[in-house]
From TrEMBL:
Cofactor(s) required, per the database record: heme
Species lineage: Eukaryota, Viridiplantae, Streptophyta, Embryophyta, Tracheophyta
Coiled-coil region: none
Stated family: Belongs to the cytochrome P450 family.
Species name: Eutrema salsugineum (Saltwater cress)
Name of the protein in question: Cytochrome P450
Amino acid sequence: MVKQLKESALKQSPVDLSKTLFCLAASIVFRTAFSQSFFENKHINKEDIEELMFEVQKNMSFKFSELFPVAGLGWFMDFLSGQHKRLHNVFNEVDTFLNHIIDDHQSKNPNQDRPDIVDSLLHMLHTQEQDESFKLTIDHIKGISQDVYLAGVDTSAITMIWAMAELVRNPRVMKKVQEEIQTCIGIKQKERIVEEDLDKLQYLKLVVKETLRLHPAAPLLLPRETMSQIKIQGYDIPPKTLLVVNAWSIGRDPKHWENPEEFTPERFIDSPVDYKGNNFEYLPFGAGRRMCPGMASGIATIELGLLNLLYYFDWRLPEEKKDMDMEEAGKKQSKNTKMSIFLCFLWLLLLLLVTLVFTQKFQSSKLKLLPGPQKLPIIGNLHNLEGLLHKCLQKLSEIHGPVMKLHFGFVPMVIVSSNQAAEEVLKTHDLDCCSRPETIATKKLSYNFKDIGFAPYGEEWRALRKLAVIELFSLKKLNAFRYVREEENDLLVKKLSEASQKQSPVNLKKTLFTLTASIVCRLAFGQNLHESEFIDEDGMEELASRSEKLQGKFAFSNFFPGGWIFDRITGQSKSLEGLFSELDGFFNLVLDDHLKPGRKVLESPDVVDVMIDMMNKLGQDGSFKLTTDHIKGVISDIFLAGVNTSATTILWAMTELIRNPSVMKKVQDEVRTVLGEKREKITEQDLNQLNYFKLVIKETFRLHPTAPLLLPRETMSPIKIQGYDIPKKTQIMINVYAIARDPKLWEYPEEFKPERFVDSIVDYRGLNFELLPFGSGRRICPGMTMGIAMVELGLLNLLYFFDWVLPKGTTVKDIDMEEEGAIIIGKKVPLELVPIRRH
Ligand code: HEM
């Protein structure tokens, strides 16, 4: 190097010191590692080697595939940016070069006196024991050779370049270090500098130290990866986390270094701080197990290189250059990195857009989205819902189809209005649609879903429903309470006979409510409504109608996030609390009465007796445990679902019959013919032979299903209805009212014509999806047989014993058919008729 520089000095031409020092370091490493002259090596192109090393380093640093290991994105970016190709090329070049080196070494005898690194490694390879656990291979030799050459050349060259740059920028230091050299080695030029000369050069060593502080060749060391969970400064760092130590910024930290940006080798005078990995404010070679093993060799190369440069030559900038550009090459790289990251995000964005467009296309082609009226922000389709819900939804379905979606505020609701779609929900996907949505009112009134009607699908609901079907709603139970129904009907006939004598109009709504409420109260609570000390007929009716209204009433909290605030303001929450405590008070009285010591359980125990008995038995073996809340939940169901539904059905039947005198005549003729004249009493046995009468009831259920939208269901998994995709947790309403009036299924659907069922197999027990007054599937009304029994016997008594006329001054045209209600839809205007006792 000195020889070459002397030639340039003679010509006074500027020297590219970077290149010169790179060649110096490369020559030293080539000779110590491979015993090959860097300048005369026939396997490498000297001009290209620096480029090649830069490529190798670049390939070792930043790769998208490592930073973006998502869905092959990084791999693809590397592929696009040519990184894969470059890596492949660089590997091939390096591998070819190392193969040549190893071939050369294997083809001749090693230098016994001065074996190079490859000689030593090949010797180890050939002499290693067969059973050695670690096996050295040719690939190991290539790997180590590459380490030496990659880590040894550039690092030393770069440090020398920075040292020279700082010295030229700091003439005072340059002067001082050169004076030291001259003093120690002598003014008379030595032919050759040797490493022993370094021993006396203290200030030169401080210059190297200061250079390594300001310009560590590997500013971020080499990244480490944690192998287990560790804590750093109290922060938890999981295993397999990349750790980067910024030796560059630590070496410039003003907390440790005075005027850290200045090149002041004197700072190390009398300082114990060294670069050997023991002082963590100064880590140019790293520290610990992974510290640079070539440190001594690197320092030797740097110190000797610098000494030569400073001993033989003075240095100045070329004429035209005023300032030294101290920009780091790494900065250039960092700009590239930023650009690459920017490109990567651009790519991600593009990918996202393409995915979105693709998904939308895919969805619209694959997913069949539900039709429905245009929704508005926040309120959804609430503005489309005017009047009674089932009627309004019927009209909307005529426009948007039998399966449509509406938004009740924030809650999507699927409305089904055809028998085929209803069959898919209630039969094909019965289990998927077997849950119920939770609302504030149903939660409260069902004792936190400890009931049958409103509990979401689950083990508890299944156990309770099974128990109820077997123990409370079975045929045996139905027959056991037949006497109650018959006795209560006799009482009804007695009361109506009295009204008949007076020829005064009767409010049939009230009368029928009393009938069904008395039956339900006796068989469910063991309470005779006419004698009860807890509740009277009026109190009962009032409580039932308030409960039903509140359950079906629009509550903000069910459809809007934070809607409870509005429910508070509107008083809805207060009404619910008030109603609940009234109902709970009533149920508590009933329970206490049943739990009284010494209470005599009748031959036919009521629902509460049966459930208390089960409460004491169940759960002891770890099975489903019945609690008093379950008992209250079930009696609340029976009270709310059993009373109004049956009374309303009889009332609608009477309304239609009075509006349709020919049907009234026909049915009464049948009843009286079959039962015979002048019977004192009728029983359920008498119902068996009445065909037309049963058609009248069927037609009533068709035109006036008491729960026209059933009870809402909620999907438990994604389903397809009529080809439309319905996601999990969507509420579904089946508009059985609309289906039962669908002109495609029924001729003259608005007319009351029981004859339509003559010779028809269509029934209302959940198997024919065009007629579903009790619903269908797993959630079908469990009280159906009891309900039908109450309706049939009640109507039969009215028709057998009495003729019915409108109050004086009114005609059929005056009968108001308007409906009202929330879940159970009844007749708004009471039906007043005058009973005329036949015998
Ligand atoms: C004419 C009389 C009745 C009619 C029209 C009727 C109608 C209905 C309807 C439409 C459902 C909803 C079915 C579904 O969502 O698919 C239902 C459920 C229910 N009904 Fe009835 N019902 C009547 C009488 C009764 C009686 C007398 C009781 C009890 C004594 C009762 C107890 C229940 C219960 C507990 C449920 C909830 C079932 C569940 O979710 O699993 N119903 N009823």
